[in-house]
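Could you please consider the sequence and fold appended to this message?
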Amino acid sequence: MSEGDESAALTELAKRRGFFFGSSEAYGGVGGFYTYGPQGAALKSNVEEAWRERFAVQEGNLEIEAPTIMPEPVFEASGHLDGFDDMLVECAECGESHRADHLIEDNSELEDAETLSPEEAAEKIADLGLVCPTCGADLAGQSVEDFNLMFETNIGPGSSTPGYLRPETAQGIFVEFPRIKEYARNSLPFGVTQVGRAYRNEISPRKSIVRTREFTQAELEHFIDPERDEADLSAVEDVEVLLYPATEQEADGGDYVETTIGEAVEDGIIGNAWLGYFLGIAQEWYETVGVDMDRFRFRQHLAGERAHYSSDCWDAESEVDGDWIEIAGFSYRSDYDLSKHGEYGDDDFTVFQQYDEPKTVERAVVDPDMATLGPEFGAQAADVAEALETLAERDPDAFDADEVTLDVDGEEITVDADVANFSVETQTEAGEHITPHVVEPSFGIDRTVYTLLAHAYETDEVDGEARSYLSLSPSVAPTNVGVFPLVSNVDELVDLADDVAEELRAAGFAVVYDDSGSIGRRYRRQDEVGTPFCITIDRDGLEGDGGDTVTIRERDSGKQVRLPVDDLVGTLVGLRAGTASFDDVLDENEVVEA
């Protein structure tokens, strides 16, 4: 299928079969917002649960659910008010706004235009002779401005508190760290997960659910002591990955690096072992849920791409319709977030780490004479005392002089050294307070759903008739099983079909019951929404020597096999979990000709 055709076919299928469609269409719609239909909502929910099972349950991590609206000081501390921008260029003729880096990338060989400054982007637009996609007017000479992506709101009536819809779920975890650390018994390392909505006022939403203004993230914030906590790579060291490091992106003729997680960390391609660990876990998880690994890579961020909080970042990217799209990011956020909230917030964002053995250390301390500082500095006295304590920690030698110079709220103040009562004391310490570093795997659920649909979309021919189907993994398919009585006017067949459907639902399977139309048409309907298995109840299966039997049909191959009703649940459990293959079922049971 050619580029462009894949996206168009997928969008048409998604709307017709109830995966996703534009919201509020009765009122003209609004860009960047989508509604998931019955099939899409089920698929998305299954992806979320699969992520939760792997990254929360199996990793032994905590999970929280924080509000989607937070007060303005949170985002002042996090840096989002000042640094969460995209580049906007506005057409002077029609007034439409466009994302400058996207225009450049769509009309040139440049793949990382977001690393440009606004001034460089404006020059590039002029050099390329770009025009407004809406009206065709020349964009040369138009200024490129930074546009903050957060949605602003007010909390409460009257003189309300300014607030913002969160642009990432992470801040809900960081803000609540002082309480969450207690639930983790103040014992590092530990992880906290959250699956929820985030909001970004995108300049130019596009490619359906790939770039929207409301979306779902699944994020893990893994808190570590960088001096003591080492990643154990034994579980992932042999996982094979396709990497696109920054050095290869910047080199002439740069290429991918095919390697293993263990080798990539050892060779320094992945500079942080914790990032390597989560890349390995993600590689295996994406394969399990059905991403085509021939269309998947990890790409390292260039220096200009990294977010303000990130010292290193790798994106998981999937190829869809000829383009690479980011579906997850793996960032080493160091202690940026907790340090900032510790500075701005009124709580303790550190963890006490006990030493293996108590340590005897010398500490520089001051005991300021407030009887002197009070009359001399008045309301500033407490700030002067605090500045003396800070100076003693940072530069104890400063107290060797007769006077010490302090910076108090930008004002230079001189204090007699003897007023500080400076001394060096020997202290025994059981541990220390540290600000944990953070390793963050952040997954875009909507983009993962889109990738799964795009990679699963297949066409072939069955009995001389064209067929389109979704080869979705049984672990995430919105419907697990279709149950079809061959005819609907034979009571015994209908009763058995009802019993089978009821038993499968009781076992936790999502079941669709369909007795309308030819059996071929019923198969096609389920193929198109990705139902992996269909059960047909016919006369041949009624009360045989070994009891009732049914036929089970596998979606991708169209092959069918007859097996006892009593074996049906156990067989489907194994197929859904991946512990058994349909070839195993074919080998053990009577094959039925289609």
DSSP finds 20 helices and 29 strands in the chain. The mean pLDDT is 93. Residues 85-148 form a domain with the Herpes Virus-1 fold (CATH 3.30.40.230).
